[in-house]
Every structure is written in structure tokens, then in C-alpha cells.
Design a protein that fits this description.
about 120 residues; mainly alpha
């Protein structure tokens, strides 16, 4: 048997107009939106604060104390002396290399002469 009361309820439900309604109220949605924006602004401010301090630390590590003219002149003189010593050492090494090359050439000539003498005897 069919319950007529159930049939009437189904007919009235089928003829109604339905519209979507938000689950949260407008105030709750606005509060969530404001909270998300505030968190984003806070995260951005924290990142900028961290970046500024990092850059400041890097630049302060690169900054040197001003050099006095006397110490700069002394450093220049030490550098010139070191350069002169290196040039003298290079000249000495070049002379030794030239002498060694001449000795090798002389010994090579003697060796060729002695080999030629040995082949003539056989």
C-alpha cells in the first residue's frame, strides 16, 4: 500500500526551486580571507627582514678599515722588493738552465764522436 502522505511530500519537493547556498557565512569567509592576507604579509615581511640582515652581514664582512698612507707605502715597498727578488731568481735559474743546456750539448757531441770512433775500430 502506498502512503499518500509520502507522495504529496515528494510532489512538493519536486516542484520547489533550489539555489546553492554557501556553507559558511560571509563574515566567516571574510575573516578567513583577511587571515590569509595577514599571514602572507607577515611571511613577506619576515623574508625581507632576513634578507636585509643577510645582505648587511655580507657587506660588513667586505668592508675594510681605512689604510694609512704609511702602511700602504710600506706594503708597496715590500711588494717591489719581492718582485725584484723573484726577477733575480728567474735570471739565476735561466743562467743555470743555459749552462746545463750547453753542457748537454757538449756531452752529446762527445758521445757522438766516441760512438763514431767505436764503429771505425770494428
Amino acid at each position: 500500500m502506498v502512503d499518500l502522505r509520502m507522495a504529496r511530500d515528494a510532489a512538493s519537493l519536486a516542484r520547489r526551486a533550489y539555489a546553492l547556498q554557501p556553507v559558511r557565512s560571509r563574515t566567516v569567509r571574510a575573516a578567513i580571507w583577511v587571515t590569509v592576507c595577514a599571514c602572507s604579509v607577515g611571511a613577506g615581511a619576515g623574508a625581507m627582514y632576513w634578507y636585509a640582515h643577510r645582505v648587511e652581514a655580507e657587506t660588513s664582512a667586505c668592508v675594510q678599515e681605512p689604510v694609512s698612507p704609511d702602511s700602504a707605502q710600506a706594503e708597496l715597498e715590500r711588494t717591489r722588493l719581492a718582485l725584484a727578488q723573484e726577477a733575480a731568481a728567474r735570471v739565476a735559474v735561466q743562467k743555470a738552465a743555459n749552462a746545463a743546456a750547453a753542457e748537454v750539448s757538449r756531452l752529446n757531441t762527445e758521445l757522438l764522436f766516441l760512438r763514431a770512433q767505436g764503429q771505425k775500430r770494428r
